[in-house]
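To assess whether the prediction recovers the assembly geometry, we first specified each molecular entity separately, as shown.
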Amino acid sequence: GAVVSQHPSRVICKSGTSVKIECRSLDFQATTMFWYRQFPKQSLMLMATSNEGSKATYEQGVEKDKFLINHASLTLSTLTVTSAHPEDSSFYICSARATGKGNTIYFGEGSWLTVV
Amino acid sequence: LAKTTQPISMDSYEGQEVNITCSHNNIATNDYITWYQQFPSQGPRFIIQGYKTKVTNEVASLFIPADRKSSTLSLPRVSLSDTAVYYCLVGDPFSGGYNKLIFGAGTRLAVHP
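The predicted structure of the complete assembly is given in tokenized form:
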């Protein structure tokens, strides 16, 4: 299978600060990446679709100015949580569509964000 | 987008075969069926994907009847390490609609000694 890597795997930040999470496709190019968040014992919730070289498409109810997504290259997408608050604490997961590998979507390992 | 329905939870014992069925009554002609496995605090792991009939790989088999309104993930001889949440998703990988990979509640499989 294809490999998608996220960094950092865990991050703690102070309330009011911003934190960036990176998502990289290591062995394939991904024109489309996706960002999810997941609360404990719940399913994944799609936040936004990130397209290389264009603006991200956000799902209803997700604040685009709070969750900044940048997809500057075919192997990297970043999610920046701006002015983080404790309610933003969650497990964030990215995924990437492996163009040329059956368009199968592969997921990263996830990143735990704790805002204190 | 085809909605999926799976059992909320299942229990099994080590060495048994486990079959998890997913209903997707309004699956579209171009939709594929994909199954993922998720362990706590990890991202979902791709298990298997299929369009029709039967697909088999080194970890699982996927059975899809002719009407494609359901599918069954078969895990042979499960072990304790197969305890996880299993998600069934449908979508067309070759169209923009596949972008919206919406997860349902999944099936929590617990394997007991």
